[in-house]
Amino acid sequence: MCGIVGCFSREGCYEKLLTVLQKLEYRGYDSAGVALVAGGALAVRKKKGAVANLCGAPLAGAAGIGHTRWATHGKPSDENAHPHVAGKFALVHNGILENFAVLKEELTKNGEAFSSETDSEVIVKLIARAYKGDFFAAVAAACSRLEGSYAIAVLCEDFPEEIVCAKNKSPLLAGAGRGAAFVCSDIPALEGEVRYVCPVEDGEFVHIRGEEICFCTAGGACLPKVFCRLAEKERAPVGASGSRMEAEIGQIPHGLEKTLGWLRACDFAPAARALRGAGRIFTVACGTAHHAALAFGALLSREARIPVFCEAASEFRYGDPLIGAGDVLVAVSQSGETADTLEAARLAKARGAYLIAVTNVEQSTLARLADFPLRTLAGAEIAVAATKSYNCQLLCLYFLAAQTVFYKKAAFPAWFSALGRAAEACERAFSCFSEVFSLAKRLQTARAMSFIGRGTDRFTAAEGALKVREIAYVFAESCPAGELKHGTLALVEEGFPVLAVATDRATVQKTANSLAEAKARGAFTCLFSPYKEYAGAADFFCPLPALPAPLMPLVSVVPLQAFACRLCLLRGFDPDRPRNLAKSVTVE
Question: Domains in the chain, please, with CATH?
Answer without folding.
Answer: 3-229 (3.60.20.10), 254-413 (3.40.50.10490), 426-575 (3.40.50.10490)
